[in-house]
Amino acid sequence: MTDITMIEAARVRLEGQARRTPLLSSPFLDEIAGRRILVKPECLQHTGSFKFRGAWSAISALSPDVRAKGVIAFSSGNHAQGVALAARLHGIPSVIIMPADAPRIKIENTRAYGAEVVLYDRIKESRDEIGDRLSKERGLTLIKPFDEPLVIAGQATVGLEIAEQAKEFGVEKADVLVPVSGGGLLSGIALALEARAPGFLVHSCEPEGFDDTARSIASGKIERNAQLSGSLCDAILSPQPGDITFPIMSRLCGPGLVVTEDEALHAISLAFNRLKIVVEPGGAVALAAALFHGETLGDTVIAVCSGGNIDGDVFKLALDKFPG
Amino acid sequence: MTDITMIEAARVRLEGQARRTPLLSSPFLDEIAGRRILVKPECLQHTGSFKFRGAWSAISALSPDVRAKGVIAFSSGNHAQGVALAARLHGIPSVIIMPADAPRIKIENTRAYGAEVVLYDRIKESRDEIGDRLSKERGLTLIKPFDEPLVIAGQATVGLEIAEQAKEFGVEKADVLVPVSGGGLLSGIALALEARAPGFLVHSCEPEGFDDTARSIASGKIERNAQLSGSLCDAILSPQPGDITFPIMSRLCGPGLVVTEDEALHAISLAFNRLKIVVEPGGAVALAAALFHGETLGDTVIAVCSGGNIDGDVFKLALDKFPG
Q1: Residues B42, B84: one domain?
Q2: Which pLDDT score is estimated for B235?
Q3: Domain boundary residue among B122, B142, B162?
Q4: Of the partner residues B19, B27, B112, the one whose CB lies closest to the CB of residue A22
Q5: Secondary structure (H, E, C), A168-230
Q6: Which of chain A's residues have a Cβ under 8 Å away from the Cβ of B48?
């Protein structure tokens, strides 16, 4: 299981590989939220999302002979790019299984990072079955997107940085909001903060209709989403929390927050205007929750913007709907 | 005159105030340029541009009784916001004289940071005369945008960071491209790198039709632009290099680079897609030069993206013209 020792070891492996993203803020956002907002822009990470951290953590921990055969991953896009780049930097092949309806830019980028991309139908096919078959045929190691202790340890380095950077800002107590799909990033951050910043409380953030994590945390057991697609927040549409991530989230998280798609688009526009960063819809749900659903939160909120891989048309939609 | 001692002193005053912006990169940009590109995103600085550094440097160096009376500045927008926020954080009043045709967002933001904004006609009126009159009437200290050693020392801290961060990347030799208007940022960076990274050569970057610095460096004397407005690169339309900045640039800079407005828009789109940062046209000219005019440059180019205060409509224009 992932613990602070494993997280610190992942940080050492990531040294000089992952970017230490800054902690951003704007008085304009504080005014909208009625509280202090600090933003951790993982959209500025290599490949445009935090996923590079977990991918590097897992691949760098493989034994050299196993690693040399290559890796395989399934992903709606951000994990795909993280694995593809981490594999390329290790000089090994990668196969990425992606839903056919993933954003064009994510499929193209994954290929451009040197991966072989296999597309599947999100509704009719099981990505797990496809992954298992290809893994066996080629001797590839499966790099799971979230239910894998080494991946969680890599994502947890975001939490280590938050703990250190918040201290520099003089923050001792904060609500930390994190976009959630399978829960790798959230459970990793929760474990890191439990050890390094115990005054911080983490919360899951999800779009309406895909709030499996909030419901699971509330009920104490794993709940599923009724639908599997149909949101602009394509990065965070996992059907349910992970078997490994859920117990961590259940133990360490406060109540989950849920935002509308329009609130996510509004957050994208505000991040453009006020922070000069590019955030994708799924990556913006925590900032949206901090801005528009802060009533149950404390004086200081740290929102993770987990990714920035957004098509230009969706970005323009956000600027058109929320120009201010 | 600004020297490395004054620059190091400015860095101490800026500690905990200015953000240390990261150094970003993307294999996609390297491929387009045919060389390694590192980007220093000062658009992520407070107020969305490097100008906060110089403003803080100058205001923090004033004696308390002089500072208490307040400050005045003239600016097309980015210096305005930097001075307004630095003044507010010092708890003193600020008056900002802005051209009436400055982007709406820059005027609004300057007011929102607490400054009193006075608009003038860029063609018919002299901002210097207006500034002198108001300074005398109210006892305000003029914070010049570039021709002021303390301001240059503040901007120079970008150069100190570049020297340190490039070393972390193992870079010992590089061309450093900097957007230029009056030359405060470029001369500051040039002085910092002369002392801390003597293998680096700095170059001015400007839009076509506003290449006064490139022509001045080439001819060895101060040259003026024929026109004073009419470019999307509103942030960098000073009529000529400064009296203090020009001798520094003339001594330390390699040949200046000039880009078209379309190349700046293309760079904005690529920064959106590949770096997940928001850059304004004037702030994108160095990245555009690195991407599209690298033939005379070496293997590693460091491009400063100096600001990100762009109206949504101009940003959408960049994404529409260069969707790739």
Answers
A1: no
A2: 79
A3: B142
A4: B19
A5: HCCCCCEEEEEECCCCHHHHHHHHHHHHHCCCEEEEEEEECCCCHHHHHHHHCCCCCCCCCCC
A6: 276
Q: Residues 147..206 of B with a Cβ closer than 8 Å to A: which?
A: 168
> What is the least distance, in Å, from the CA of B64 to any CA of chain A?
25
pLDDT for residue B188: 98
- A136 and A179, same domain (yes or no): no
| Same domain for A124 and A87 | yes
CA nearest neighbour of B51 among B232, B213, B182, B231: B182
Q: Taking every pair of C-alpha atoms in chain B, what is the biggest distance, in angstroms? A: 56
Q: Are residues A234 and A104 in the same domain?
A: no
Matching residue, tokens 């056919």: A100
Q: Do B16 and A168 touch (CB under 8 A)?
A: yes
| Nearest Cβ partner for B276 among A85, A277, A319 | A277
Same-domain pairing of B188 and B225:
yes
Q: Are residues A316 and A202 in the same domain?
A: yes
Query: Which CATH number do you get for residue A153?
Result: 3.40.50.1100
Q: B45 and B82, same structural domain?
A: no
User: Which residue type does B237 have?
Assistant: L
Output the pLDDT for position B318.
98
Percent of chain A with pLDDT over 70: 100
Say how many CA atoms lie within 13 Å of A247 toward its Cβ: 6
Q: What pLDDT is attached to residue A116?
A: 95
Q: What percent of chain B has pLDDT over 70?
A: 100
Distances (CA, A) of B254 to A95, B186, B203, B251: 46, 12, 5, 9
pLDDT higher than 80, residue A76: no
Shared domain for A165 and A280, answered yes or no, is yes
- A207 has a chain B CB within 8 A of its CB: no
Alpha-carbon radius of gyration of chain A: 18
Predicted pLDDT at A234: 79
Find, among A322, A197, A321, A315, the residue nearest to A252 by Cα. A197
Best residue of B23, B113, B276 to probe chain A, by most A CBs closer than 10 Å: B276
At residue B52 the predicted structure's pLDDT band, cuts being 50, 70 and 90, is: very high
Which residues form the domain of B302? 4-50+148-321
Query: What's the whole-number mean pLDDT along residues B80-85?
Result: 95
Task: Give tens-digit pLDDT for B173-184.
Answer: 999 999 999 999
- Domain boundary among the residues B120, B142, B164 is at B142
Closest CB to A22 among B22, B85, B320: B22
Per DSSP, the three-state class of B305 is strand
Instruction: State the total domains in chain B.
Output: 2
Q: Is the pLDDT of residue A108 over 90?
A: no
- Rounded Cα distance, B164 and A46, in Å: 20
ipTM of this complex prediction, to 2 decimal places:
0.95
